[in-house]
Amino acid sequence: MVSLDGMKLTIALAQINTRLGDVEANLEKHLSIARQARQGGADLLVFPELSLTGYVLQDLASAVALRPTADDPVFRQLFEASQDLDLVVGFVDEDSRHRFYIASAYLSRGSVVHIHHKVYLPTYGLFDEGRFFAWGDAVRAFDTRFGRVGMLICEDFWHASPPYLLWLDGADLLLLASASPGRGLTAEPRLDSTRWVEQINQAYASLFTIFVAHANRAGYEDGLNFWGGSTVYDPNGELLAQGAYHQEALTLAELDLNQLHRTRARLPLLRDERTALVMREMSRILGSRDAGIR
Amino acid sequence: MSDLIINPDLARRILTGFLHSEISRFGFSRAVIALSGGLDSALSCYLTAEALGAQNVLAIRMPYKTSSQDSLDHAQLVIDALGVQSMTVPITEMVEPLFERFPDASPVRRGNVMARMRMIVLYDQSEAFHGLVVGTGNKTEILLGYSTLYGDSACALNPLGDLYKTQVRQLSRAIGIPEPILNKPPSADLWLGQTDEGELGFTYEEVDRLLFLLVDQRYSPQECVQAGFKEDFVRRVVERVRRNQFKRVLPPIAKLTNRTVGYDFLYLRDWGT
Questions:
Q1: Which CATH number belongs to the domain containing residue A159 in this structure?
Q2: Which residues from B are below 8 Å from A229, CB to CB?
Q3: Closest partner residue to B18 among A58, A59, A220, by Cβ?
Q4: Which of A21, A192, A223 is the closest to B18 by Cβ?
Q5: Cβ B271–A20 below 8 Å, yes or no?
Q6: Cβ-defined contact of A187 to B1 (cutoff 8 Å)
């Protein structure tokens, strides 16, 4: 496992608007922002969920699907861009059996390092993802040139278990991508959806003593607004940087990876995590007569 | 939060962004609005002028001979305050021949004809001005079905449809809509002395609190009664919301093939933009 110690990482979060179903136009925007981020000194650029396609795809899902290989004309250009800085892009991944996944790809030095398929597809309220997409079936951390990283997509981190699993799998940096439709207008200056996402992301950073970076969409699709407000929290749960709400932004933050050392010297939550106890109790809970979630 | 109070700055930000995005992505830079002199259309006009620039908004006043002078004057207050383009197109001589043909037509029929005549004028000017029609219907009105189908509810996009009437009032006050418009009783002004609250039989304040529980907070009707609303009032409102569902959906298409518009041919309106 690569160690993060002693490094600084400049991360950039691209909270972009997209054209719905127009991969070519969205690709152009990705390439242009990648140049801009590189000029700003970024080492890693994270795009939101479904950044190459737009979010409410419905019947467009199969038409905009890609395969992240060197002979794909879209990914070929992204691979080239990833020679200069590492990229996380959101797209629809079509597997060899023609299942369509909401996916994020981590690209570095011209190749794919890791692909995450969204494991929780919200199909309730205004969401209908389960109707159009296949469910991902793995949550895995992976090694990058900056250390071990985990990626999740939107509803994945509304559940506590995927971030927990990535933490145990060695991730010291969570890269979260969303296309979060703004909802819940109250007297408060933030929407309910904004408040909720910021609370849980700050909580993950604090509970797991890790860096948590979140890139969220901006713009509109029909009546849905995407609220931007991308964030980076450090292992103390401190907010390092935040993009503006309700507009496009490119937000850069320098992560001092030695903060992991300092925070965990003070607060050894990772050292003390009782994984064997978790396994034992999980087995008991799931193995009991009325198996399942209580 | 379990009340109707909203943050007006946030609402304004989201709604002006919505108007700008959903008009410009279709290649338009302009909008037309039917300005009645009432609060809803005034707020729509303020938001649209902020989103597109006043010179890109055409506000149209369409009085009938019985329309109150106040309605015309209050619409003019909005036009003057914003500096939007404006036009007055009386509908009297357009609807009178139909009324003469059916002299016994009820006030509801006449009101519907007037609302639909205004829609025709509005959509004609939409084409002439190259602007999209911005709607003015609020959430209370939509849920209660208090509108004329293909009349005042017709629009290309609607910034107010997720705000209850009392929230429209709150946002309008914050945005600086002139006092005379804020303070007068809401009315469709289709016949003399008509007021929304008189016709509906309850106040917006009351019904918004009930709708907020029923719709937003997912209370059962029984829970609303337990929360202090009169049983008869709850029953009437629930029934009214149910009965008017047809106004909130496109007409059903009889499914015959494997792929049918509305059932399994599913795309957003923003498809490709």
A1: 3.60.110.10
A2: none
A3: A220
A4: A223
A5: yes
A6: yes
Of A199, A196, A201, nearest to A176 (Cα)? A201
Q: How distant is the Cα of A73 from the closest Cα of chain B, in angstroms? A: 20
* Torsions phi, psi for B107 (to 5 deg): -55, -35
On whether residue A181 sits in a domain, the answer given is yes
Q: Select from B31, B246, B163 the least CA-distant residue to A223.
A: B163
B144: which strand partners? Answer: none
Tens of pLDDT, residues A57-69: 999 999 999 999 9
Question: What is the pTM (predicted TM-score) of this model?
Answer: 0.95
Residue A272 lies in a domain: no
d(CA A41, CA A60): 36
Tens-digit pLDDT profile for residues B162-204 = 999 999 999 999 999 999 999 999 998 888 888 999 989 999 9
- Does A196 reside within a domain? yes
In angstroms, rounded to a whole number, what is the distance separating the alpha carbons of residues B12 and B160?
Answer: 11
Domain tally, chain A: 1
Q: Which domain holds residue A52?
A: 8-267
Architecture of domain B8-192: 3-Layer(aba) Sandwich (3.40)
Kindly list the domain boundaries of chain B, sorted by start residue: 8-192
Q: Which of A20, A59, A191 sits opposite B273 (nearest CB)?
A: A20
Contact A185 B7 (CB under 8 A): yes
